[in-house]
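Hey, I'm writing a tutorial for new members on how sequence and structure tokens pair up, and I'd like a real worked example in the thread rather than a made-up one. If someone can provide the structure for the chain below, I'll link this post from the tutorial.
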Amino acid sequence: MSDTVFQNVILELDSGDRWIEISNDDDAHHAGRLTQTAVGVFYKREADFEDGHPRRWFVLLGPNEAGVEIGKVALCVLPPGIEVKNADFVADCHTTGYQNRKPYPRYADEIAALADTIEIDLPPNIAGHLIAPENNHGGPRP
């Protein structure tokens, strides 16, 4: 499956991988299939719980070692100053890798590049659980 269904490319990296912003249910569904995670389900549930999408949702697309297009990382982040009705629904920043694998340290640089592009801090975490900067091999965010 290609990423032609995605309309909102936020950042293309030197590797050719692309950060896509999920902006509708179809994007969320395809991101879930490509990451083999529940990102699509959580995106839809947020709309029900929050009457919309206060969080921003992203997926990092690119080929795996076999050349097959996958979602390498999925994440959502609550922008600063935005309030939500159900704060316990998902962490303010929730990051997971393909098939819910750990995204750090492997994708630390790609996540940092997204943070710089969207100008929102993306604290190193695995499924919303913060990890120490020395464990992410990406160093602390300035």
